[in-house]
């Protein structure tokens, strides 16, 4: 009998205190808050990943936003980046609804799993190299156990580099040189996983027009077509 993939218990992420700078920042933000969310009880802890162990689509983000995931306790929830991401995921059948505003709003991911390079909100949205390293074991454990993943969408260059660095640590073969990062560029790796790069739906990218809704749609439309066509390798 085939065992189901076992994902890292998310309580291990939620209870993490490996990075003193991030612990101090996330907890300070949870106390000081911001004016429009003064009535919220902030989460103020590491934000766990979201999705099913059987998912075929893996999304790798950067880190929670101070007043987004750090407030709501759910990845890409409660900020503009999440508004963009979940709208696109819903449009192409990877989420049951287009909004994600709180942990109890009924959102479910469909054949999709979302993780991050760092699970705590960092000052200025910029984790330190040591903080990426401290958080990496969680991603390694997820990659070991997400055995059905056939398609990976890294959001931004950091998500892209983080995914390939994790593969290398696990002894998975990467192309040499690595494929170029660019929006909606795709590469199929030797183990059959296809990587489709995407610009991150950060406010900086969306407000400047570097990333438009049509561009983000193109990534997840392509993801849906590839998964539904059966053209992706089933070799694990």
Written description of the protein model:
The protein contains eight helices and six strands, in the order ααββααβαβαββαα. With 236 residues, the chain is of the alpha/beta class. The protein has a single domain (10-229), classed as Uracil-DNA glycosylase-like domain (Uracil-DNA Glycosylase, subunit E, 3-Layer(aba) Sandwich), CATH 3.40.470.10. β5 (186-188) and β6 (194-196) form a beta hairpin. The longest helix is centred in the middle third of the chain and has 17 residues, at 129-145. The protein is globular. The relative contact order is 0.16. Residues 1-5 have low confidence and may be disordered.
Short description:
37% of the residues lie in helices and 9% in strands. It has 236 residues and is α/β, with parallel strands linked by helices.
β-sheet strand percentage: 5-15%
Q: Determine the CATH topology.
A: Uracil-DNA Glycosylase, subunit E
**Rg from alpha-carbon coordinates:** 17 Å
CATH architecture annotation: 3-Layer(aba) Sandwich
Overall morphology? globular
User: Whole-Å distance between the termini?
Assistant: 17 Å
As residue ranges, the low-confidence spans are 1-5
The tally of structural domains comes to: 1
Number of helices: 8
**Mean pLDDT score:** 94
Which structural class should the secondary elements be placed in?
Answer: alpha/beta
**CATH class descriptor name:** Alpha Beta
Largest sheet, strands/sense/barrel: 6 strands, mixed
């Amino acid at each position: 009998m085939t065992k189901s993939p076992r994902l890292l218990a998310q309580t291990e992420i939620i209870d993490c205190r490996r990075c003193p700078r991030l612990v101090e920042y996330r907890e300070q933000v949870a106390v000081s808050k911001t004016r429009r969310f003064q009535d919220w009880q902030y989460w103020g802890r590491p934000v766990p990943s979201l999705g099913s162990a059987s998912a075929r689509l893996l999304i790798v983000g950067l880190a929670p936003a101070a007043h987004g995931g750090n407030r709501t306790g759910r990845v890409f929830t409660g900020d503009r980046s999440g508004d963009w991401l979940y709208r696109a995921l819903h449009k192409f059948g990877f989420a049951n609804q287009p909004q994600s505003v709180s942990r109890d709003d009924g959102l479910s991911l469909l054949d999709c799993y979302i993780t991050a390079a760092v699970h705590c909100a960092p000052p200025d949205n910029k984790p330190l190299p040591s903080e990426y390293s401290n958080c990496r074991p969680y991603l390694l454990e997820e990659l070991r156990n997400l055995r059905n993943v056939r398609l990976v969408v890294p959001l931004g260059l950091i998500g892209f580099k983080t995914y390939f660095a994790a593969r290398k640590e696990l002894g998975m073969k990467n192309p040499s040189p690595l494929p170029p990062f660019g929006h909606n560029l795709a590469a199929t790796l030797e183990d059959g996983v296809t990587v489709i790069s995407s610009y991150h739906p950060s406010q900086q990218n969306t407000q400047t027009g570097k990333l438009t809704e049509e561009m983000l749609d193109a990534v997840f439309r392509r993801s849906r077509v590839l998964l539904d066509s059966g053209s992706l390798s089933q070799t694990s």
